[in-house]
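Collaborator request, handled under Task 6.
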Amino acid sequence: MSNDQWDEIKKSKCWILHLGWSNTRHKYKLREERLGSSPAERDLGVLVNSNVNMSWQHALAAQKANPILGYIKHSTTRWSKEVTVPLYSALARPDLGYCVQFWAPQFQKDVKVLKYIQRRATKLVKGLEDSSYEEWLRTLGLSSLEKRRLRGDLIALCRYLRRQSGEGGADLPGIQ
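Structure tokens returned to the collaborator:
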């Protein structure tokens, strides 16, 4: 790189994220200035910390989706299936599934954080108060977050296998 290009790089925007428990935490420099390290960084909306613990991401996803459910609850006068499910599916659910193949919950506490949001959304629909969570999902035509993650994993696997086998042209049904 030329000196002009180096001058365009802002040291204040450069951080080192040391990943893993046994990382030697080398020090790096940009020109003559030492770069600082960061305990966590966000990339494409996914928060990664130095321990590669994704519990933060689950909490952030729930934190983004929870107020949206509040807006849905307070802005609609009819809490019917026809109103609530499309609003939830379009506005809140994407936050619970964005890049989930990377940060899928591995601990029960993280699953509970995400499941709480979907359970709260299903409770918005009137007439289902006495039903179980699974019955709510069935009645509303929603799949559980675990099934959605599994489906996403299978789609990613099929895409990978198709690339490896050289069958890039023919699409499998339902996989885009």
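The cover message to the collaborator said: "The CA atoms of residues 119 and 144 lie 10 Å apart. The longest strand covers residues 40-43. Please let us know whether this matches your experimental observations."
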